[in-house]
Amino acid sequence: YSEGGRPALTLFKPSGSAVVSLEEAANFDAINAVDGPYRGVSEARVMAALERDMASVKDPLSEPVVAVLGVGGQGAADRPLNALIDRLVLRNFGIVTGAGNEGPGVGSLPSQARSRLAVVVAAVAADNAPELYSGRGTPENPAIAWADRAGAEDAGTAGAALNSARKLSVLAAAFATAMARQGRNLPNGWFLYLTELVKKAATPLPGSQLHEVGAGLFESEAAASKLLEAGVADPGKVEERSEDLMAMARKSVFGEALPAELAGRAFKAVSSLAGSSYGFVAGKLSPNSQTAPASIAEKELRQALGDGTVTESGLMRPFEFRLTG
Question: 3-state DSSP call for residue 306?
Fold first, then answer.
């Protein structure tokens, strides 16, 4: 996995940004780094860094994080990294990646850009035409969210993705502040809601196709900011729309979803448990011998999920509560 120069993971938080070199990340010595003309790192190292840094965030609904994957690798859409990206977005982390530099052929996206829930950013030139190198989706599965330009010190679609992530982070911080003024955290599905606003506010690029530039050019955060200000005036509707988007995202990943009302109740119950010593493991829905007395949050989660849901594919399972230390 390499993207132009050095593979890296960039995290944008309200408190600032940080770049994690995937080649030099500590404690990853056992995970391959590739040197030579095709410099890069293993998929395992990318996943380890991503999971470690996301785990350091206590609450993504009060401290919104937008992460940029500055990597690219050709391969199938069902890579383990893609599954991790989708799970992280479902846990309310923002994930952005470039469309890759293998264009202009149709279907030339890198494998991680074929995840279901990442924001995939194409690159356009000064004249707003898609860069020839910018990867393309397909007419049947456009995949591209929007297009952007690389910053002065950046290059390629990784640079375009970085530029978009900076602006998304500014919007996320404004979103969190606006909700906090009304005594609320960001809603479950905030990143999906913000992504939808940016797509609505994007500048159309006539002459370019959806699988080349997505919704258009994400020129600045100003237009999306106006939509955000109008939206948060009614936080109830914002929360409702965010929950709907999250339910649709779950369905796209797992093939089916809990009804929105139950999904919302389940999420709130899980959030209540986040600060406790409970963990969730696949199994029957009953506490084991190590489990502490049932809390109100646990009871609410049981009520929301019932005996659990098992799909034909086995992707959704009931839960068991147990102490995790």
Answer: coil
